Amino acid sequence: METKTETYEVSTSKWYNPFSWGSTKTETQTYSVTTIRTGAVKSALSNLIENIEQEIRDSNFTAMQSFKEKVPKEIIPALRKSIIDNGGNETSININRLRYILQSIVNSINLPDISYTNHKLPEGSGTLEGWAAESFIEESRNFIFTLKNEAKEDINKHANSIIQTLKKVELGNELFSEYDKQLEQLKNDIENKTQAITELQTITKELSAIR
């Protein structure tokens, strides 16, 4: 908004005074005219978009780092307590394996790269005055209002998505599936050793027969 001074002539003719017909005088009046430089506004809006996107990325990174640190610290002690309360031995659980599983779960969370760079900026170029300037300003305000609401909606939507993803994780299955694999491997090892012992016994018998 800028205030500028304009000088112009005004008629001083009076219909009831023939001698005044055609007479004019110069008056100087000061009035406010809305003037806007669209380039500066568009640049500011583009910077606003970049700042919002960067703020969301920084917030996501900080939240995930905090989450990665808190999850093992809170879940592992709770799991130990649960095992002890149910008469178990806390050494029966592989803490390192549990940490690995928890880390894998956290790393599997996808954080979308939210972008608003494809949003169309208000139309207009150069320096606008009067109604055109006021219209551009109103459009810019609406742009900011819409951008703010959309960013808030996106943040809530993706936060809920992460919560739903975590709710679907069955930690027990993730944890004990590893023990199932270990038991299967142990079974195979035992079977292989049994087979080796049987073969050794057979060879021993054959050697005894030769002697």
Number of DSSP strand runs = 4
Strand order of the largest sheet: 1-2
Strand content: 5-15%
Q: Looking at the structure, what is the overall shape?
A: rod-shaped
Considering DSSP H and I runs of 4 or more, what fraction of the residues is helical? 55-70%
Number of domains: 2
Estimated structural class: alpha+beta
CA gyration radius, whole angstroms = 39 Å
Describe the overall structure:
The protein has 211 residues and is of the alpha+beta class. It folds into 2 domains: 33 residues, no CATH class; 133 residues. Helix content is 66%, strand content 12%. It contains 4 helices and 4 strands. The strands form 2 sheets. Strands 1-2 form a two-stranded antiparallel sheet. Helix 1 runs antiparallel to helix 2, helix 1 runs parallel beside helix 3 and helix 2 packs across helix 4. The longest helix has 48 residues. It is rod-shaped, with a radius of gyration of 39 Å. The N and C termini lie far apart (114 Å). The mean pLDDT is 70.
